[in-house]
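Re: your question from the hallway

Yes, I did run it. Sequences:
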Amino acid sequence: MKRSQIEETHTLAVFVENKAGVLARVAGLFARRGFNIESLAVAPVDDRFSRITIVVDAVSAPLDQIKKQLDKLIDVVTITELDAESSALREMVLVRLNVEDESNVAEVQALVDGFSGSVIRVRETQMMISLSSRPGDLDDLLEQLEPFGIEELQRTGAIAIPGIE
Amino acid sequence: MQMDGGTALLKALEFEGVDLVFGYPGGAILPVYDSVIDAGLRHVLVRHEQGAGHMASGYAHATGRPGVVIVTSGPAATNIVTPLADAYLDSVPIVAITGQVPYGLIGTDAFQETDTTGITMSITKHNYLVSDPNDIPQVVHEAFHIATHGRPGPVLIDLPKNITDAMNPDSAMTWKDPIPVDLPGFQPVLDAKPEDITAAVDLMLAADRPVIYAGGGILKSRAANELRALAEKLNLPVVTTLMARGALPDSHELNLGMPGMHGNYTAVMAMQESDLLIALGSRFDDRVTGRLDGFAPEAKIIHVDIDPAELGKIRTPDVAIRGDAKRVIVAMLDEIGSKDAADHGAWRSTLSGWQENYPLAYEAAEPGGKLKPQMVLEKLRDLSPEDTIVASGVGQHQMWASQYWKFEHPYTWLNSGGLGTMGYSIPAAIGAKAGMPDRTVWAVDGDGCFQMTCQELITAAVEGIPIKVALLNNSFLGMVRQWQEMFYENRYSEVDLGQPAAGGNSPVPDYVKLSEAMGCVAFRVEDPDEVEAAIERANSINDRPVVVEFVTEAEENVYPMVPGGKTNSEVVVPPFQQKNVEQRGGA
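Structure:
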């Protein structure tokens, strides 16, 4: 099963005070309470606050308990569960390929264009690709790139904000 | 006002109203200790940092004010890990100040460096690593606010040496009085929603077999009077958990006593057979519920807690109420008004039947036999002032103390309920006595616990904090031995504390000599006829700590007992009551 299609996941938007150690507090809480993190992305939104998007495996613990325990952390201000369908949800991936034969470059370029991704650089048979899209699209692109020889890849984990009604 | 960070720390503590701290100096906290000399507060110099932590805890529970600990970095910080974890599980407000290596050395494995905020992250309510001395007043103010608001708990402040050291320019700061805390992520909800109160009261009025399951939150919320009013208003029987002993007087006719693994039969069975449990500041601990899937199978649950994470954590409530116990109970009383509860007559007679058939009881000692620990505790109770503060360690003596003392007042019982920290009693008793010098404070201890923290009796002697210790010496790690007897076919493994040293004849240590060497008055009691005189003598000594060693029956067991993994319905009563067993479950 593709990782972004695991059914029992929930996406949490966690608004935190931008203080030293806040990420360790959040990550440590998940570890010690036995909650599994599927992905986590964090960055400041202004001088005082940061926003964390956490995709959690809710089979490991009831979502309600995860949210309540998170809320006990002093630096955590709000926790919002985001609906996967209606939210703006994006993830980015960087992929480096070695397509072995230069004749494959055009084919990969076409594939990436089909996902509205970018070929950042091509050097002989090496290609650097990026895609920012819904996590399921990343799964699909990676599946189709697999036969061309993925050398290295990095996904960011999803970020999300509530959708426009 | 210009000053250094060390001076600012002490000024900040005084600003919070602190007049007593427990601590131990060392390298990284040296500058703070230079400021302690001129500060307007009392410092109690402990003999081990763990003792400082438990003293702060005992002080906090007895006085209702947060306890303060000051220790250095590295091993001192790790030595307070146990009391911090203890205070976290029992929701005790403590503020711990730890020294840290200079900020620039953090992360270099410097001498006596530990990642104190990292280590204590999961056992404190919150912690701080301060890098700017100008932040000290506000951080201290926030720490006291967090420790004492909402569900109380320990908060730690880690202070790098460079920001407290007057000789270091990094420590220069400008004092500004703290401003009201601005913590958007810490907004405790105190008042319940009116519709939840209505729903709860509807259940309370309709129940046939209700029980109030009162926990430590009643005491934290200072809601003993409100608890009593609620119980009396609807004639609701009450069980008081290990953390709530004293929340309702034991002499009150509605008080069924302590439930749980070593609770009395009636309290255990009342919960088990009830059709409504009104959980007030209690958390469905495994020691109370026994095997969870068989716990109180017919009971609806009203669960009131200030910490919403407790609601539904263990047992899904029918009515979940987030709020402060005192305010919630007041709202319930308003809602009840002049309404009447259903008739509980049949339930009350079931309860009194159990009380008659299965009272807390023990078999008296054989003539010439050793002292029964339960008897010692009954005498101690009867011969000490009614408002005596009792602090216990962890193990058999703790359970007997909770069972056989009669707690008539809140805040008279200190023990390590959640963490089960052996060695808690002596330092906790010292903390309580330091905060309440006019009260009699008895530490009830076992010989295992005593050997873990008895060095704090030196603190008590030197600092003039005259606690009393009832050492119930059965020469065993009694509770472990009891489990080995009951569940490991009498295979006693490493529980015998009564052995002589190589080449000697008498057990070591000699507790009387040991206690005398630490500045205490000490005596040993072996004859049942000497128990009363010994207690009276101890109660008459108020200028020094006293240790009374009671040599007790070695293989006495704590009953009743719900064996681990069993449901509360399988509670085991003492052997001499087992003939009544067929009368069980009369509800």
